[in-house]
Amino acid sequence: MKESKVEKALIIQEIEATYKPLSANQILTLIKKEKNLFLIATLNIKYTKKEYQEIEQLLKTKKVKGIKLYPGYESFYPTDKRCDLIYDLCEKYDIPVIFHSGDTHESLIPIKYAMPIHIDEVACKRRNLKIIIAHLGNPWIDDTMMVLSRHKNVYADISGLIYGTFDQPLVKHLRQEIHKLIFWCAGVDKLLFGTDWPINHSVKHNLMSAYIKFVKSLDISKQDQKKILEENAKKVFKM
Prior knowledge:
- There is one protein chain.
- By secondary structure, the protein is of the alpha/beta class.
- It contains nine helices and nine strands.
- Helix 6 (about 140-150) links the parallel strand 5 and strand 6.
- Helix 6 (about 140-150) packs parallel to helix 7 (about 170-185).
């Protein structure tokens, strides 16, 4: 963050890993003295009553700013009835629910669960629920574009689009897709900055700085760049 001149950051609790991931409480303990770090908690779709109650207790703190769900990794649609209590919680505490959406690293689970078009039905029924479509739903960015334009309570982040360096041919395509989305949605108010991973260790590449540079390479005004990098997140996450 210091290297990239980033003031505040949201940490996303990992739900599954090859190692044992940290709990939300463990992460909050680690960042207790860090005034500029906040947590996005996660819930497994097979959550227990105890886990649900623990999350609600955490939401009473000002450090937890949202809940992330992983449809594409856990084989459920955003319309799954098990999500209803989670949505209730998000509405009660006025925090966003974030859906992993788009491509996954897991090839044994059907990709249909991660398609952003399924979020449209949730947005239709939950007008007061703040929703974030992670990763622009890439490669289904057109579907994400349509959902964003239809619902005032739905946003998307640009995280996780690139895992290597930003000199890949794919970057030009992504820039074009984002410009198209901005045009269709009549502005940048629906877009949030994100990295997914701040550092790519395999190539010793600072993805946080690279993502900031990517936003500044878009054909938009400096005011709109600031909205993506800062102002939109302040509004959605109440930071």
